[in-house]
Amino acid sequence: MTSATSAQLCRITVSGPSGRADLAVPVSTTVAALLPTLVRHVVREEPDEYGSWALQRLGEAPMDPDGTPETLDWLDGEQFHVVRAEDPLPELDFDDIADGMATAVNRQGNRWNETVNRRLFLGLTVLVFGAIGAVLFEGSSATISSVSAASLAAVLFTTAVLVARILRDRGIAAISGLAGCVFAGLAGLIGVEGVPFVLGPVGVLIGGIAMAGTASLLLVAQRILAPELPIVPFGVAAVAGLGAVMAMWLHLGVGLTPHQNATIVLTTFLMVTLFAPKLATRAARLRGPQLPRTADELQIDVEPEPAALVVEQTGHADRYLSVLAIGASLVFAVAFRFLIVEPGWVEYTVTGLLTALVLLRSREFLNIGQRIALVLAGTTGAVSFVLSMLAWFTPVWRGVGLVLLLGVALLLVLAALRPSHRRLLPIWAHLANVLETCAAVALVPFLLQVLGIFAWARGLAG
């Protein structure tokens, strides 16, 4: 027998109450989706409910309906049995305890495998790169550390391109390329600020330019030399680098304070997330048909598009959207740290409004990575807000704050316990839209206050 994972189809024999059938099934389809077809082939009487049937190996428990031939390790030529779910075939008894223990252990889903092994070593590689960065900051010579970081960036850049082009390994290419972007940024930072570790504005500006430039070169290489280079990691690095460049330009060139700087950067990237879906579809060259206004326009844009082309462009659009959403989330997480440098009612209000806007905006993103990134960024703002307020409270009010936080934790647990099949009422989506609009409108006067526009206007009036 050969493994089912080596091909797109797995050839099996299925036995049932009315006979047996030889079938070829897709390896990526769940058992629950396959059961209706299997039942039709081996059950002559009209089945009253497909869910009342189960698929079983001889001597084993019924298979997980959510499993697939690939995850359940089906083999070509293997035989399975379709049985009533309420009357499955009995499991075999073991006369050898060691054999029974081995069988039970192998059925568990937490066994070490090659996929986990690969992830472990890639994770350790990331830790080694982090240790190298720490060593560079602890060096005695800024010149040597800067040149070493730049050399590592060049080597890792080349490695990422070669791995993607020759080995077609996206994981190793992503880690190598991202490490190259980070080391390029460190080279610029150390070259300007020196060692030990100092986050000076000029150094951050040069480091951001270096990181964004390296990430942009990798994206160009993806288009020209190595199509297997992943777009999202390097796009996120480029967006994060641009965020650092923008923040330092506002600080050095315009002379804004850290709080003003963080407010402008957060608001700007919040606007980016607002227009991100349209920007992503435009970048992927996806354009929907225009709404017809006359009878003649009904004949425009009626030609069908090839399915493969539409699927490919949609994938590009989703990746571009991930770049903007995750990159903006990184900028949010850092900028929230500087919103409450000097706590005051304006700073707290701006932080609360921006946190609410980021969390409300996350509901519009259905991709798992995009939504999680935005939720984590908004949570960072909420945590900064709460910790800063609790630090100024008296012990009594701090205890009240802790009780309120326990209430928030209870609400989150109740949300997790909510049945997945129950949909939210439409009123909640409408309320979220209203709250987002109100928060955005309320933010405008506070932005003017933070930027000193009101003080400037009062100065004009004498």
Return the average pLDDT rounded to an integer: 89
The separation of the N and C termini measures 90 Å
Q: What is the helix fraction of residues, given as a range?
A: 55-70%
Task: Spell out the helices and strands N to C.
Answer: EEHEEHHHHHHHHHHHHH
What structural category characterises the helix and strand content? mainly alpha
Shape: globular
Keywords:
462 residues, mainly alpha, Ubiquitin-like (UB roll), 2 domains, four-stranded mixed β-sheet, 14 helices, globular, transmembrane
What would you note in describing this structure?
There is one protein chain. The chain folds into two domains: 82 residues, Phosphatidylinositol 3-kinase Catalytic Subunit, Chain A, domain 1 (Ubiquitin-like (UB roll)), CATH 3.10.20; 278 residues, no CATH class. The chain contains 14 helices and four strands. It has a four-stranded mixed beta sheet, covered by helices on one side. Helix 6 packs antiparallel against helix 7, helix 7 packs antiparallel against helix 8 and helix 9 packs parallel to helix 11. It starts with 8 loop residues before the first strand and ends with a helix. It is found in: Cell membrane. This is Type VII secretion integral membrane protein EccD. InterPro entries: EccD_transm, T7SS_EccD, YukD-like.
